[in-house]
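seq as requested:
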Amino acid sequence: MSIETKPESTENPTGNAARTRIEFRCTPAEKDTIVSLAGKAGADVSDYCRGRALRSDNQAKGKAQRLEYLDLLAQLGKIGSNVNQLARATNAGRTVPDAAILSALQEIERCGEALRASLRGDKIKASQ
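struct tokens:
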């Protein structure tokens, strides 16, 4: 398989940025496989090949996002443990300070906002 780049640029159909062309050679069997995979993915061959070639960036972003989610999950587990301790104390007839309940609610809200920010693609602050 060999790859050739063409120096000419063409305007894309929307009239936005100029694009350059990349071509590569493959066997007829490889071409059939690529066309088949693109069809299964619901993409044309160019979009499919571009997506596969640039996948490493997407994988890095996905890994970072996964780590953010795991951190949030750990934080939610700790908060859940604290809420459980507050509920056990209340059920045992002990007085639970309003500040403790308010603090737990604020932590839940903070984790919820961090999760929403992550889903929007915003950077989230490191755990506190």
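The helical segments are 28-41, 45-53, 55-91, 98-120.
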